[in-house]
Amino acid sequence: MGIWVDASGRQFQLDTGGSSYRIEALAEGYLAHWYWGPQVRARPGLDRRTLLRHRAFSPNVMVDRDDFSLDVLPQEYPSWGRGDYRLPAYQVRQANGSAVTDLHFAGYRRLQGKPYAQTGLPQLVASSDHDAETLVITLVDAVAQLEVELFYTIFTELSAVVRSARFRNRGGDSIHLERALSASVDLPSANWEWLRLTGAWGRERHIARTPLGAGLQAISSRRGASSHQANPFLALVEPGATETQGWVYAMNLVYSGNFFAGAEVDQFDTARMAIGINPSLFQWQILPGEHFITPEAVLVFSDQGLGKMSETFHRLYRRYLGPEATRTRERPIVLNNWEATYFAFDEAKLLELATVAADLGVETLVLDDGWFGDRRDDRRALGDWTVNREKLPHGLTGLAERIHAQGLGFGLWVEPEMVSVESALYRQHPDWCLAVPDRSRSEGRHQLVLDLSRVEIGDWIIGWMSEILATGAVDYIKWDMNRHMTEVGSAGLPPDRQAETAHRYMLGLYRVLDTLTTKFPHVLFEGCSGGGGRFDPGMLYYMPQTWTSDDSDAMERLTIQYGTSLVYPPVAMTAHVSAVPNHQVGRRTPMAARGWVAMSATFGYELDVTRLTAEERDQVRRQIVQYKRFRRLVQFGDFYRLLDPHRENAAAWMFVSPDRGDALVIWVNRLAEPAGPVHWLLLRGLDAARDYQVTQWSDGGEWQSLSVVGGDALMAVGLSRSYRSDFAVAAWHLAARQPDEGGSVR
Ligand code: DGJ
Hints:
Elements: E1 2-5, E2 11-16, E3 19-25, E4 31-38, E5 90-93, E6 104-112, E7 132-141, E8 146-155, E9 160-169, E10 175-187, E11 193-198, E12 206-211, E13 215-221, E14 233-237, E15 248-253, E16 259-265, E17 271-277, E18 284-286, E19 291-293, E20 297-302, H1 305-320, H2 324-327, E21 334-336, H3 338-341, H4 347-360, E22 364-367, H5 395-405, E23 409-414, E24 418-420, H6 424-428, E25 447-449, H7 455-470, E26 476-479, H8 501-519, E27 524-527, H9 537-542, E28 545-547, H10 554-564, E29 573-578, H11 591-598, E30 602-606, H12 614-636, E31 638-643, E32 650-656, E33 662-669, E34 691-697, E35 703-710, H13 711-716, E36 729-736
Parallel strand pairs: 21-22, 21-30, 22-23, 23-26, 26-27, 27-28, 28-29, 29-30
Antiparallel strand pairs: 1-2, 2-3, 3-4, 5-10, 6-7, 7-8, 8-9, 9-19, 9-20, 10-17, 10-18, 11-12, 11-14, 13-16, 14-15, 15-20, 16-17, 24-25, 31-32, 32-33, 33-36, 34-35, 34-36
Helix pairs in contact: 7-8, 10-11, 11-12
The chain binds (2R,3S,4R,5S)-2-(hydroxymethyl)piperidine-3,4,5-triol (DGJ).
(2R,3S,4R,5S)-2-(hydroxymethyl)piperidine-3,4,5-triol binds next to loops.
């Protein structure tokens, strides 16, 4: 890992994890992007100057030359209005009404580590100064009196660059940011496929991949949340690239609100990819002397296909994102009462669930929606965060004591960002929600969104949440958010700053989360937004795991978890075994399939355990023993995708321990096929030189020892199994053998 700067102080190369990223401050003042790809030796003279040539209808910014148009120059942070007609990275409206800007190189700094800046935004945090290096390049527009600092951080061994930009108003008048993306990269060709994660409520993060064509292609959110419908992620992929081969350029935004992630192919077949806050719903006034900082974008390059891309994201996020205390802490197995009882519970029912759960080996009981105010259904009471004594006569602390006495942790659901129209809070503070003058307020799930851009409302949340958490009764919080924003306006802002509301909301939410997670570091937070509607690195910074989807059906989860794994590690996904017929799709899948799919992530249950048959209880007990045995491997091992359920009638994946001594392979089929193909799973991530004892899981729950197989054969020949029923499952455990152990080797 290293940041190389040439003797003139104008050429920069970031080398890490086998890749290089090359920038040059040209003599003309512009900051050119020359290269991002497999590592090359850092030497002066690497450039793509041949792109600079006279082109019709591409005006030249240097009036005495006809070969210097910004329209053809690959740039680090492209401006608007000086001849580059492609997607700008930023736009600033100045006091005189002009939105034309022109940034020139003014200097650079090289910093050890990743200096933690009090930005109020979620971010990757290096554990020590030896883990990371940062390059800061300063650009200045003397006319607009604007300074922009571009931040680039690289981390040891990981082919990634973390970027952000800070705008400073150096003039005497206010300026308005109308666009401030976090990163933009110009690639010299356009022959790519663009890959994104898309979906809907209950169908989050399915993979879509199509050829990149002329013009702009983008995925974005305007919903006030990163959303179920889109994820702040984009990759340009070499056509035909697989899990193991091909070049991949990926971007992921550390942000949970409105975003834009797009690529534009221009007239000369080059591609510009960019990511950041969605400009269509954003504006920010910067007063003289003040600054604005963008969220961070994580840029990953892989020359070994999508698998390597995911491995880089997973390692980055496991090491550098999220509360320090939880990064290596094993996550508990929970029972969540939502699908078990919905709103119809009382203390006796919860204790009954807890008693059975504890006996089965569950570690935490999470009490979901319905414990407060008059919350008998989803039409009322959000905002009235006092315990409902009819349901819970001993209060939360009394209930928690009884649950703790069973040896279980106690988790609690909250939805602090919302208010029901039918609530005491709304009657008292009808002006506390997002709204615009003279228009009615659209409702979603009978609720409105509290205006978290206002500090006093954030403080109110911190106040009541702190009271609950300070009792020490709660070990786990599930933080939900069940509608998207409409009429986005704030009573706390003047008319000319209304367009700042959406981003100010996010900053307000982040402040609340920062305060609570810092004050109560022992509490494990799970994010949720009607399932996985806010599954993004922004949320994972505060809440290291997210309820992946409200669709708990094992077959639906194959695609959802597979797609999610493209960017996010399995430890960040919560997955629960639920009842059959499944509550979302009505499907009946066997306990084994439900178990193995949920065990492929941070595990739990979401059903009435008191109604399980004796045989089912036995299965659950065995699943829990199994998960405890493999938990470290699943939560902290490397993850490899083997079969894609978007294309196949099955999904398969595997986990490998960091020392490659231990691996778990899981394969789940959908429907049985007559005369179907026999799939061979070519394993990955093993040590080719070592031998592994292969043990196969059988439906009866037993593990059966098979042969000892070489790591090379497991990766080249693979494993297979025949099956004859719908929803069949296979699982293998591989344990590397010590050199002196005997046994037959295939
Ligand atoms: C949506 C969540 O995704 C569910 O798990 C549950 O917590 C409900 N909200 C409760 O209202």
